[in-house]
Amino acid sequence: MEKNNLYIGILSGTSMDSIDCGIFQFRKNNFSLISFSENEYPLSIKKQIIDDQESIRKHYKNSPLNAELAIEYSKIINNLLKKENIKNSDIKAIGMHGQTISHGENNGKNFSIQIGCPLTISNQTEIKVIAEFRQDDIQNGGSGAPLAPLFHEYLFRNSKIERVIVNIGGISNISCLSHGDKNLIGFDSGPGNTLIDAWMSNRFNMNYDEDGKIAAKGSSNHELIKIFLEDRYFKLKYPKSTSTEYFSYEWILKNINKSKLNLNDNDILSTLTNLTAVSIVQSIDKYSKDCKEIYICGGGANNNSIMKNIEDEAKRIISNQIIVKTTGDLNFHPKTIEAGLFAWLAMSKINNTKLDYRNVTGSNMPAELGKIYSRLNLK
User: Fold this and answer.
1) 245-299, pLDDT tens digit by residue?
2) Model pTM score
3) How far is Cα 362 from Cα 80, in angstroms, rounded to an integer?
4) First vs last C-alpha separation in the chain
5) CATH number of the domain at 6-143+342-353+367-373, please?
6) What would you report as the CA-atom Rg of the chain, rounded to the nearest whole angstrom?
7) Cβ neighbours around 206 below 10 Å, total
8) Which pLDDT score, from 0 to 100, does residue 216 have?
9) Distances in Å between the alpha carbon of 183 and those of 50, 126, 177, 307?
10) Do 117 and 352 contact (CB within 8 A), yes or no?
11) Confidence of residue 108 (pLDDT cuts 50, 70, 90)
12) From the centroid of its chain, how far is CA 266?
């Protein structure tokens, strides 16, 4: 393997179920995964974030968790490089997202807060680190999310077929990739795994619904789905973004109380799972009516109930001929896409590439995203 144009992407999602790290190679019109690791999230850090989230949100710049998480990231990066016999000096840059603590809008101003000190990672790995992509987008008039659609376009746009890429993490975001000369459209469609995970945690004392097995035991309630979909977020036009703070356990309870329905826990879980699918498909139908293919990535691709519901809804609402698969069918494992995104963002910054997020985050103009952090002796 030629060890040139190598970049690393590393992140941890809002569910804090793992830290994902990948080494990627960028060549002209070619992107490839060299190696990937999915690493257990440190329980001590996860517990502190859950227990003290409000305090961390207010004082995140001075939180010791910045260094603690950065050291964990650094160990993961160094271990992956050692495993692949790649020198740290062979890596051009690391794209680092960090751990989101809070994201949203306050008094009309967008904000996004992540922890994980990029300078610590650069010191520990002796590699340049690019970070604060969301903050730069916000400074450019955007909402800071979603960032995935431009990367989806880079990887998956097809000149002959209109397709949609759906990333299902805590929140779902969709990328409408036109086959013609229409502009890319991307936005957060609504909840992904967040409401499912919240219900599992509070009602079943489990972190998530493995493979969607428990949801499959219940029945989705049409009346409750209708009440969920009355939420103002689903009526907003793009560009738009949301957060796991908005779609929370309290959000579920509020809407169940409004419905006055008496449903068992399995049926509510099934309904929440179907809400993810319905909100995704309705968004696609609204903005990509000629869509022929839907490809799913992110953790939600592992939930068989979500996948089945998306396919059923897409065939019912959009077209009986529509194809619903995971990005694995396009030769990119669903779990690796987001790490690839941050490697791509780092590569774009190093190459001084201006990215056009106007139809995605609502930013004012194309702009370079990310700040470079490096040890003084790094060139």
Assistant:
1) 999 999 999 999 999 999 999 999 999 999 999 999 999 999 998 999 999 999 9
2) 0.96
3) 36
4) 24
5) 3.30.420.40
6) 20
7) 13
8) 98
9) 39, 39, 8, 27
10) no
11) confident
12) 26
Q: Does residue 377 register a pLDDT over 70?
A: no
Do the domains at 6-143+342-353+367-373 and 148-330 have one common CATH topology? yes
Helix, strand or coil for residue 214? helix
State the helix-helix crossing angle for 65-83 and 118-125, rounded to 10 degrees: 40
DSSP 8-class letter at 299: G
Fold of 148-330: Nucleotidyltransferase; domain 5 (3.30.420)
Contact 290, 319 (CB under 8 A): no
Residue type (1 letter), 178: S
Tell me the C-alpha to C-alpha distance, in Å, between residue 112 and each of 101, 116, 237, 245, 363. 8, 13, 21, 12, 15
- What confidence tens digit (pLDDT) does each residue in 83-98 have? 999 999 999 999 999 9
**Does 180 score more than 70 pLDDT?**
no
Query: What is the C-alpha separation between 18 and 69, in angstroms, rounded?
Result: 12
Q: From CA 378, how far away is CA 14, in angstroms rounded? A: 32
The b/e string for 294-314 (b: 16+ C-beta within 10 A; e otherwise) is bbbbbbbbbbebbbbbbbebb
- The DSSP bridge partners found for residue 186 are 175
Residue-range domain boundaries for the chain:
6-143+342-353+367-373, 148-330
Please calculate the CA angle 296-299-301 and round it to the nearest 5 degrees.
35
DSSP category for residue 201: I
Burial class (CB in 10 A: 0-12, 13-18, 19+), 159: exposed
254-293 burial by CB neighbour count: b if 16+ within 10 A, else e?
Answer: ebbeebeeebeebbbbbbbbbbbbbbbbbbbeebbeebbb
For residues 64-78, give the mean pLDDT: 97
**Which residue in 16, 15, 60, 8 sits closest to 36, CA to CA?**
8
